[in-house]
Amino acid sequence: MYALYYFPGNASLFPHMALREIGAAFELRLVDRTKDAQRSEEYLRLNPNGRIPVLVDGDLVLFETAAIVLHLVDRHPRTGLAPPLGTPQRGEFYKWMVHLTNTPQAEYRAWFYPWQHVADRAMAGSVKQAAGERLGRMFDVIAEQLGVGPWLLGEHFSAADLFLFMLVRWGREMPHPPRDRPELAAHAGRVLERPAVQAALEAEGLKAPIF
Ligand SMILES: N[C@@H](CCC(=O)N[C@@H](CS)C(=O)NCC(=O)O)C(=O)O
User: Fold this and answer.
1) What is this structure's pTM?
2) 88-194: CATH class
């Protein structure tokens, strides 16, 4: 039985959707950000960075959402959430997982926490605006690469699609949201139709508009 430390809509949504796609037994443990629980002594023992999520798998305690999902797809190879090891498609899968985590996901930190990126908090608005513009260019490229899809790996649905869905969702209140790109809106719509995704959103209490 896995335990996933989460907060609704946070980076934990990606492994949460993956766990439901896999059909694995898991328990959700709320890290109450409204009380800064991510900075509690108890949580810092699990993730000294004070960030959500964490997955506990027996004696293994993992932070980093992409690493958690890579571990889950390895633990459940027959669920098809990643192409077989050593295939060109597996390489494409790694490309998207790494790109999404170290490019748009990392950039979102500047969008959501701009004051952490400047010594002078008065500049935070400018940092946020620039982050939004960089994210826009990143989503332009992703949309172009995705094309008609239907998935990031073409005909093969993978965990990377869940990741992209979460990142598109995070930008829903941007001046030029990711959903403005027809490829990304169509992709998010397809992911949203999946029963496992619906179940995860419902369990986290996330309501429309989802993206
Ligand atoms: N690289 C980390 C980033 C996780 C992250 O930034 N989580 C956010 C929520 S989406 C968080 O914990 N924010 C609370 C804080 O920074 O205090 C991962 O992918 O797990």
Assistant:
1) 0.98
2) mainly alpha
